[in-house]
Design a protein that fits this description.
The complex is a heterotetramer, with two copies of chain A (453 residues) and two copies of chain B (134 residues). By secondary structure, chain A is of the alpha/beta class. Chain A has 18 helices and ten strands. An eight-stranded parallel β-sheet of chain A has the order 1-8-7-6-5-4-3-2, sandwiched between helices. Chain A has a two-stranded antiparallel sheet with strand order 9-10. The longest helix of chain A has 21 residues. Chain B has six helices and five strands, in the order βαβαβααβαβα. The chains are: A alpha/beta (453), B alpha/beta (134). Bound molecules: cobalamin (2 copies). One cobalamin sits at the interface of chains C and D.
C-alpha cells in the first residue's frame, strides 16, 4: 500500500464520519456523469460560467438553494462550508447543526460537510447533475476533500497559501503545505479515472487592498504546487480591484504568466482557466447600490475575458443571503452576460510591463531560495516576508507591505516591506500615488477600503 | 482607560479589528488587541490580567451567538461590575432584525450591543456611556 | 421691429396662453441664476451630469417628481411634454389635463406646458434652481420653446430632423426646418443676455436599429444648423447601440467630427458636448434585468466619456415610471459613476476609419447639393434618400436602408438604399454581417430589435 | 380575411406596427395598414371602405383610453356585428393592472383586449376567436 493510501486510511478514521469505503468511492468517480465535472464544462463551452456562493447548515436548505439556482440558470453550484468545519472543529459544527435542525434557525454560516457525510451529500449532487465547487478556507482540508470528492464535488478551491494567510491566525504554515500536498495528490489520482478534477486557487485573499503583483505570484505558486503533484486542470483567480484598468491588466498578465510558468516547469498539458470574483470587499448597505456594484463587476468580468465568474448578492453587507436573493443575482448576471456585446480588447503596455516585472522579480527571488523543494522555497519566502498579504490575520504574515489607491482606483504598493521587487518597479508604483497634503496614510487606507460604500 | 478587544470564535475577519485598534488608540485608550479567533475564556482572562475597563468584542461572520451564550456563567464567577462589556459587528447569520438582537445580547451579559453599526458611532456611544457612569 | 420679433409676436398670440410679456421675460433671463444654465454647469464641472426623463400632467406631480430627483442627487431636471402638445394639439391637452386634475389619474404622458403657462411653471423651476431640459419631440416647437425659455428652461432638445423623422407621420419637412430656425434664433438671442442657452440634438432617433453613420450625420447637421443661427452651446448625442465597441467608436468619431465640422464652418467659439442615452429600445419586462441593463449603460457611458447621461428606469417596459422608480434610477447611476474607477481609453482604428469615411461621404453628398442654404441641401438630401432613418413613421422617409446586427451586436448597413456611401465603406459593413443559412432578413431584424428582452 | 390596422391617436410608435403588418400577412390576412397617428374616425372609415373583418388597433404611448372612449358612439351608427374589434399594446399611462383594463376597453366596444401581451400570442387568440365564431 502506498504511503499516500496509508495516510488516507488514517485520515478517514475520524469519529465524526461513518465508515469510508475507498473502493466504492473510486467506482463512483469512475462512472460519474461528465456533467459533474467543471473541467468538462470548461472544455465544451465558450461562455463564461456563472457560479454563486452559498451553503446552509441543513441538507434540506441546501437542496432548496440548489433548486433556486437551477431555475436561475446557474452553471456551477457552490458548496460553502461553515467556519467551524473550516477550522476542523467538527464537534462545534455538530452541536450547531443540531441546534439549526431543531430550531429552524441557521446557527452555522455554511454546510458542515463532515457531519452530513458523503453518502447523504452525494444524493443531492447527483440529483442536480451539475458541477459543484467546494468553497471552504480550510488549512487542513484533507478529510474535507476526501468527503467532498466522495460526494461528487469535482472542483476543490483553495491552497496552502490562499486558504491560510487570509483564513487563519496561527495554523502552522509548513503543515498547510503538506496537507495541501495530500489534497493535490488525491485530486490527481482521481483525475485519472474520468474527467480531471479541477483545482482552483483563491485569488481574492483577504479581499482588502491586495496588490495584483502579490495576488499573481500566489496564484502562480499554488498552480505550480498543484500541477507538480499531477493535477491537470487548474483555475487561477483574482477579484475586482476597484479599477477597471487594473482588472484588465491583472487578467492579461495572469493569463500570460500562468501559462508561461506552467510550461517552464513542464506542465504543457495542464489546462489553465481564469476565474473572476465580483467585488469581495466591503459592500454598501443599500441593496440597489449593491445591485449596481454587482452588475458593474459582471461587465468587467466580461471585459477581462474570464472563464468563470463568482457572484455576490445584494444582501452581502447584511449577512448570508436568502436563497431567493442569491438566485436573483445569478439570473441577473446571466442576463447581463447574454446582453453584453461587442467587447473591446483592452491592454495597457506600461502597466502590464510593470506588473509582469514585479511578478517575475518576486518569482525569481522565491525560486532562487536554496531549499530543495518548491514548497520549502515558498515557505521560506513567506517567512522572509518576500511574500505577504495586507490584512492577513496570520501570525507568520510580515505585515510590512502597505498599499493605497491611486486617483484611478488602482491599488499601489506604498511600502514595499521585504518584497523583492526592483527599485524601478517600485518607483513606478510610487509614481502613481497622490496623497493630499498632510493626509495620513492610515486615513487614506480607511477611505480606500470603503470605496464601494 | 484600558480596552481588551478581539474577534470572537472561529472568525477571521480582521479588517475591522485593525481599524478598531487604531481608532481606540486615537481616542486615548490603552489597547490590548487579541486579534481574530479569540474565545470567550481568553477574553475574560485578558480582562482580568490587564485589569481592563472595557471589553470590546467584534464578530463579523454571524456566529457570535453560539460563542457568547455562556458569557453570563463566566461573568458570574468574577466581579466585573466596573467593566463595560460591549459587542459589535454583524451579530447574526443572514439578515437580522437589529431590535431583536439588542435584548438577546444584553441578556447574555453585554452592556452595549451594536449590530451593523459604524465603528465611530459605537465608540462615541461607548465614551458617552463611560462619562454617564461616572 | 425685426422680422423675427414680428413672427414671435404672432406666435405668442395663441388662444391657449395668457398675455406674453417679452420685456419681462428678457429681464428674467438677464438676471436668472447661473445655476439654471446647463451650459454653465458643463463649464464648471468635470463629472458626467445625470439627467432622467420625466413629466406628469399636473403641476403638483411634477413638483413632487423634482423633489424626489433632487434627493437622489440629480444634476439636470427634465421636463417631458405630453404627446398632444408635441403635435400642437393644445385643445386635447387641455381636456386631458382637466380630466387628470379632476380624477387624479394621468390622462397625459407628459406636462402640457402651453396650458400651464410660463408664469406658473417658472415658479417651480426657480424654486429648484437646477438646470431643466425640455424634452418634447415637436416639429413645430416655436410656441413651446418661447414658453419654455420664459419659464427658465435653458436647454432645448430637438431639431428639424431628429424631432421630425422619428416623431411625426406627415408634418411637412420644409416647415420643420423653418420653425426650428426660429427656435435657434430665439435661443441665440437670449444667449447674449446671460450664460448661453444650450441646444441639444436627439441622437436616438427611432431608437431601433439606427446605424451610427446616419446618427452622426444628423447630429452634425443639426449642430451646424443651430450654430449657423448663433447658438454657442450645443450637445450632440447618441444612444446605446447594443455593442460596447460600437458605442465607443461612435463616441470617438462623433467627438472628432462634430468639432471638425463646427470649425470648418467657422464656429470655433462654439462649445460642443456629448450626451449618451441609456438603451432607448425595447426593454425587458423583468425589472431586475432592466436594472442590469441600465447599469450596463452607465458603465458604457463612463467608458465613452460622455458629458451627460440620460437615464431610463426599471419601469420602462411597463409605462411612465413613478417618481420613486425614476429617482431610484438616478441614485443608482450616480452611485455607479462615483464608484467606477480606472477607465481604459479604447479605440478601434479600422472601425473608426470606416465610420469616419461613411459620415464624410454622406456629408459631402449633402454639402455638394446645389441648393443655396444648408437647410435646403439637407431637405433635398432627405427627399433623395441620401439621409433616411430605419423605423421612421414619416412619409418622407425613404425606407430603403435595412440594418442588421453582426455577431458582436454592431448595427450594420445591410441594404444601403440611396445612402451616398462608397463601395469600400459599404463592403466593410457587409463583410461583418453573418446570416445563418436560409435565415430571412426580417426574422433577423425582429430578433435584433429584441436583443435586450 | 381583411384586417385594418394602425396606431391610434397622437402616437408615433411605429416599430410594432411594422411587425404587425408583416405578421398578419404571414398568417394570410389581407392588411390595410393606416400607420401611426390614426384617429378613430379614420379607422372606422377604413373598415367600411375595405369591408374589413377585423380592426386591429395598436396603442403604445399610454393614451389609448382618451382616444377610444367614443368607440361605442361611432359603432352604434353602423352595423359592425361581423367585425372583430381588437386593441393591444400598452393601454394605460404608468404601470397598469391588466385585469382592470380588459373590462374597461370591452366596455368601450372592443371584443379582444391585449395589454402588454406579445403580438404572436394576441394573433393566435384572434385566430381562435375567428374560428370559434364561425
Ligand atoms: C472581506 C470579507 C471576507 C474576507 C476576510 C479577510 C480577513 N481575514 O479579514 C474573506 C474573503 C477571507 C472572508 C471569509 C469569510 N467570510 Co466574509 N466577508 C468579508 C466582507 C465582504 C467584508 C468585511 C470587511 O472587511 N469589511 C470592512 C470592515 C472595515 O467593515 P466590517 O467588518 O463590516 O466592520 C464594520 C462594522 O461592523 C463595525 N464593527 C466591527 N466590529 C465592531 C465592534 C463594535 C463594538 C462596533 C461598535 C462596531 C464594530 O466597524 C466596521 C467599520 O464600520 C463581508 C461583507 C461586507 N460587510 O461587505 C463578508 C462577511 C462578513 N463574511 C461572511 C462569511 C460568512 C465569511 C465566511 C464564513 C465564508 C462564507 N461562508 O461565505 C468566511 C469566514 C471564515 C471564518 N472563519 O470566519 C458573512 C457573514 C455572514 C453573516 N453575518 O450572516 C459576510 C457578511 C458576507 C455574507 N453576506 O455572507 N470574508
Ligand atoms: C422606441 C420607443 C420610442 C421611440 C419610438 C420611435 C418610433 N417612431 O417608433 C421614440 C424615442 C421616438 C419614442 C417616443 C415617445 N415615447 Co416611447 N418608447 C419606446 C420604447 C422604448 C420601445 C417601443 C418599441 O419599439 N418596442 C418594440 C416593439 C416591437 O414592441 P412594442 O411596441 O412594445 O409592441 C409589442 C407589444 O406591445 C405588442 N403589440 C403592440 N400593439 C399590439 C396590438 C395588439 C392587438 C397585440 C395583440 C399586441 C400588440 O406587439 C409588440 C411585440 O410583442 C417603449 C418602452 C418599451 N416597450 O421598452 C417606450 C414607450 C412606449 N414610450 C413612451 C412614451 C410616453 C413616449 C413619448 C410620449 C415620450 C415620453 N413622454 O417619454 C414619445 C411618444 C411621442 C408620441 N407622440 O407618441 C411610453 C408609453 C407610456 C405608457 N404607456 O405609460 C413607453 C412605454 C416608455 C415609458 N415607460 O415611458 N418612444
Amino acid at each position: 500500500m502506498s504511503l499516500l493510501q496509508r495516510e488516507r486510511e488514517i485520515i478517514v478514521q475520524n469519529e465524526f464520519i461513518d465508515q469510508f469505503d475507498f473502493k466504492e468511492v473510486e467506482e463512483f468517480i469512475k462512472s460519474a456523469s461528465k456533467e459533474l465535472f467543471i473541467s468538462h464544462k470548461f472544455k465544451t463551452t465558450n461562455e463564461m460560467l456563472v457560479q454563486p456562493r452559498g451553503g446552509f447548515p441543513t441538507y434540506d436548505k441546501v437542496f432548496q438553494l440548489y433548486k433556486e439556482f437551477k431555475n436561475s440558470g446557474v452553471d456551477v453550484l457552490p458548496l460553502t462550508i461553515d467556519s467551524n468545519t473550516r477550522l476542523n472543529d467538527y464537534a462545534t459544527a455538530k452541536k450547531m447543526l443540531a441546534l439549526s435542525e431543531e430550531n429552524d434557525v441557521d446557527m452555522l454560516n455554511g454546510y458542515p460537510l463532515i457531519n452530513h457525510g458523503y453518502r447523504t451529500t452525494r444524493k443531492m449532487i447527483t440529483h442536480y447533475d451539475t458541477p459543484v465547487s467546494l468553497r471552504h478556507g480550510t488549512p487542513d482540508a484533507r478529510l474535507l476533500v476526501e468527503i467532498a470528492l466522495a460526494s461528487g464535488i469535482f472542483e476543490i478551491e483553495g491552497g496552502p497559501i490562499t486558504y491560510l494567510l487570509p483564513y487563519s491566525k496561527n495554523f502552522p504554515l509548513d503543515k498547510a503545505f503538506l496537507y495541501w500536498k495530500y489534497v493535490e495528490r488525491v485530486c490527481a489520482a482521481y483525475s485519472e479515472l474520468n474527467e480531471p478534477i479541477n483545482r482552483e486557487s483563491f485569488g481574492p485573499l483577504s479581499a482588502t487592498m491586495q496588490p495584483p503583483a502579490i495576488v499573481l505570484v500566489i496564484q502562480i505558486i499554488e498552480m505550480l504546487l498543484s500541477l507538480e503533484e499531477g493535477v491537470k486542470s487548474f483555475s487561477v483567480s483574482f477579484s475586482q480591484t476597484g479599477s477597471m484598468l487594473q482588472d484588465v491588466v491583472s487578467s492579461n498578465v495572469l493569463k500570460k504568466l500562468s501559462r508561461k510558468y506552467a510550461d517552464r516547469f513542464g506542465h504543457n498539458d495542464a489546462v489553465i482557466n481564469l476565474v473572476y470574483h465580483q467585488w469581495m470587499g466591503a459592500f454598501p448597505y443599500n441593496k440597489h447600490y449593491s445591485d449596481s456594484l454587482i452588475n458593474t463587476s459582471t461587465v468587467i468580468a466580461a471585459m477581462v475575458g474570464a472563464d468563470k465568474i463568482i457572484t455576490k448578492t445584494r444582501n452581502e453587507a447584511f449577512g448570508i443571503p436568502t436563497k431567493e436573493a442569491n438566485a436573483l443575482a445569478v439570473a441577473n448576471v446571466k442576463y447581463t452576460l447574454n446582453m453584453l456585446k461587442g467587447l473591446p480588447k483592452i491592454s495597457d503596455e506600461a502597466e502590464e510591463e510593470n506588473l509582469t516585472n514585479m511578478v517575475n522579480e518576486i518569482m525569481e527571488a522565491v525560486l532562487n531560495d536554496s531549499a530543495d523543494t518548491l514548497w520549502r522555497k515558498v515557505f521560506n519566502a513567506i517567512k522572509k516576508g518576500h511574500i505577504e498579504i495586507p490584512f492577513s490575520p496570520h501570525i507568520i504574515n510580515a505585515n510590512k507591505v502597505i498599499t493605497v489607491r491611486d486617483p484611478d482606483g488602482n491599488i499601489r504598493i506604498h511600502n514595499k516591506g521585504k518584497l523583492p521587487i526592483s527599485d524601478k518597479s517600485f518607483a513606478f508604483e510610487r509614481s502613481k500615488i497622490r496623497l493630499k497634503e498632510n493626509e495620513r496614510v492610515v486615513d487614506k487606507i480607511i477611505q480606500d477600503i470603503g470605496i464601494m460604500l | 482607560m484600558k480596552v481588551v478587544t478581539g474577534v470572537v470564535g472561529n472568525d477571521v475577519h480582521v479588517v475591522a479589528n485593525r481599524l478598531i485598534d487604531i481608532s481606540l488608540q486615537e481616542r486615548g485608550f490603552e489597547v490590548f488587541n487579541l486579534g481574530v479567533n479569540t474565545y470567550l475564556e481568553e477574553f475574560i482572562d485578558a480582562v482580568i490580567e490587564t485589569d481592563a475597563d472595557v471589553l470590546l468584542v467584534s464578530s463579523l461572520n454571524g456566529e457570535a451567538e453560539g460563542w457568547c451564550r455562556d458569557l453570563g456563567i463566566l461573568k458570574s464567577k468574577y466581579d466585573f461590575s466596573d467593566v463595560v462589556f460591549m459587542i459589535g459587528g454583524n451579530l447574526g447569520v443572514g439578515e437580522m432584525n437589529a431590535e431583536e438582537l439588542g435584548p438577546k445580547y444584553r441578556n447574555y451579559g453585554f452592556d452595549l450591543v451594536f449590530h451593523q453599526v459604524d465603528l465611530n458611532e459605537g465608540l462615541d456611544q461607548l465614551e458617552n456611556y463611560l462619562k454617564e457612569r461616572k
